[in-house]
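Supplementary Methods, section 5.1.

A reviewer requested that the exact input to the structure prediction be made available. We therefore reproduce it here, unchanged from the version used in the analyses.
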Amino acid sequence: MNFVRRLSACVSIVAVSVLAPAAIASAAVTVPFQINPAPFGNPNGSFDAPPVHCVAVVGEQPGTVTITGAKDERWGCMLSTEVRWMNLSTGTSGTGRLSGDNQGTPGEATLQTGAGQVAVAILPAAGPITPGFATFFVP
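The structure derived from this sequence is encoded cell-by-cell as follows.
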C-alpha cells in the first residue's frame, strides 16, 4: 500500500510538471492601446479618421509580443506602420513593421523582445497623428 501511494505521488508530480508549462504558455493576455489620428489628438477621432484600436498580445510565445488590431480577426490597428520597442528590464530595443494590406490581411507585427517590462510605440508616417504607446510585461 505504501508503494502505491509513493508511486501515485510521483506520477502526480510528473504530470503536473509536464502540463503546467503548457497551461502557462497558453494564457495569452491582450493589452489595449489607442492611436488618435484626428487633428490635435482628439480621442474620439473624426468623421474621416476614427481612432485606431491596437492590442499587444503577450503570453502566446515566451519572450515575444504581437502587436495587432483589437477588433474581430485582429483588425483595427494601422497597416504598414513602424513599431518601436524597448525592453525596460534588459535595455534591448528594436523596431518592427505592422504588416497587412487592404486585401484581407490585418496588420500584425511579432516582436522578439525577450522577457521583461516592455514599452512599445507605434509611429504612423502620415498626417497629424498622436503615436500609440503601451507598456506591459512579457513572460
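The CA atoms of residues 2 and 69 lie 56 Å apart. These observations are discussed further in the main text.
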